[in-house]
Amino acid sequence: RPDDAVLGEEGTDRAGSTGLTWVVDPLDGTTNFLYRYPQWAVSVCCEDGDGQLVGCVHDPNRGETFSALGGGGAALDGVPIHVSTLGELDRALVGTGFNYDRAVRAGQAAALGTVLPAVRDVRRGGSAALDLAWTACGRLDGFWEAGLQRWDWAAGVLLVREAGGVVTAGPTAHGPVGHVAAGLALAEALAALVG
Questions:
Q1: Is 152 annotated as a binding residue?
Q2: Annotation-wise, does 25 bind a ligand?
Q3: Residues 72-99: pLDDT tens digits?
Q4: Which residues contact 36 (CB under 8 A, 6 or more apart)?
Q5: How far apart are CA 52 and CA 80, in angstroms?
Q6: Which CATH number is associated with domain 5-80?
């Protein structure tokens, strides 16, 4: 589709004329990859003016492919997936990530200080695309991170929504716009905690 627009982390941006944009992160979790830490993924999403249409997060290290079609559900290797139904924050395993900007990290540390005592535990994987995919399939009960770029979250947001979850985005008390993703029963409480 040579006339579609492309937006990518690697500087491959290209204007298009079809109204469709491919949002691509060929290596989400670059630092992990550089250190041979096997927590990185390929993330691809196609959007139009109304939002995400189709998304895919592929984890080459585990041989897993997460996919979602707007209005058609989400799957892991072709098998339908669903977000966690857990509603108790104190039992929740949540994921997060840290920005490379020191000022943003200071805010994230403050948020972590609020979240950590309130949940079962927190994981920091280093790939927002995988964290969102794992939220979509219930491996994580929720996820939050501030300062993400569109290529970090586009495919993962569609995965979570199509797996029955909720994703919110907005300014946080601790820094830039943050994304919160979780199942319906947990989303509001997690958003209030990190907001």
A1: yes
A2: yes
A3: 999 999 999 999 999 999 999 999 999 8
A4: none
A5: 19
A6: 3.30.540.10
Q: Is 3 annotated as a binding residue?
A: no
Of residues 52, 13, 21, the one with CA closest to residue 155: 52
Annotated ligand binding at 131? The verdict is: no
Q: Strand 175-183 vs strand 93-96: parallel, antiparallel, or unpaired?
A: unpaired
* Domain extents in the chain: 5-80, 89-194
> Is residue 186 pLDDT above 80, yes or no?
yes
May I ask the CATH architecture of the domain 89-194? 3-Layer(aba) Sandwich (3.40)
Distance CA 111, CA 187 (A): 16
| Residue 77 assigned as binding residue | no
State mean pLDDT over 61-68: 99
β-strand pairing of 51-59 with 79-80: unpaired
